[in-house]
Design goal:
about 190 residues; six-stranded antiparallel sheet; OB fold (Dihydrolipoamide Acetyltransferase, E2P); five-stranded antiparallel sheet; SH3 type barrels
């Protein structure tokens, strides 16, 4: 058993007869009244997110998880297939357990959280950023740079990201996987 002081991003807990992963949290100490923790939880089984407030010191049932590195192989419908990089065993996850599947390219090494009690995979996490190639974007309009103007660009995985006007087709860009936003252009 853990308490609200142990809440951190990525923590898996049992809540409402399901396993949830903490996506966001905020410890709040108002001027009046007791402290509390405001959380945003994502269901491991359904992918549904909900917000919940725990009173400070509340006991939570944490799930012991292990992390392992897996390589993304391919997608088949709503099922994603991964291979363990150490023993080459394969597992598959449903789309609801996969974080930002539109930013994942084949061969990408990801972290998979596995329930230590029964060995079942719970969820998948991408690295903090990925480098993808721009496959399609309109040319930037000359002189339209008075503000931080952006344009849509399609990357090699099919995801659409807003990028600055100077990005062209064939450029490689670094994308923040948590927010799904452009960070910078990558030089070879």
């Amino acid at each position: 058993m853990a308490t609200t002081a142990d809440i951190r991003r990525g923590l898996c807990i049992r809540f409402n007869h399901d396993i949830y992963k903490v996506v966001e949290f905020l410890h709040v100490k108002p001027g009046k009244g007791p402290a509390f923790v405001r959380t945003k939880l994502k269901s491991i089984t359904t992918g549904r997110t909900l917000e919940n407030t725990f009173p400070s010191g509340h006991k939570i049932d944490d799930v012991r998880v292990e992390t392992q590195k897996f390589q993304y192989l391919y997608q088949e419908g709503e099922t994603y297939h991964f291979m363990n990089t150490e023993d080459y065993s394969q597992i598959h996850l449903q789309e609801s357990a996969v974080d930002s599947p539109e930013l994942m390219k084949e061969g990408e090494v990801v972290t998979i959280l596995i329930n230590a009690e029964d060995g079942m995979p719970l969820s998948m996490e991408l690295p903090p950023h990925v480098i993808l190639e721009v496959t399609h974007t309109e040319p930037g309009v000359r002189g339209n740079t008075a503000t931080n103007a952006t344009k849509p660009a399609t990357v090699e995985t099919g995801a659409e990201i807003n990028v600055p006007l100077f990005i062209n087709e064939g450029d490689k860009i670094r994308i923040d996987t948590e927010k799904g936003q452009y960070q910078e252009r990558v030089r070879d």
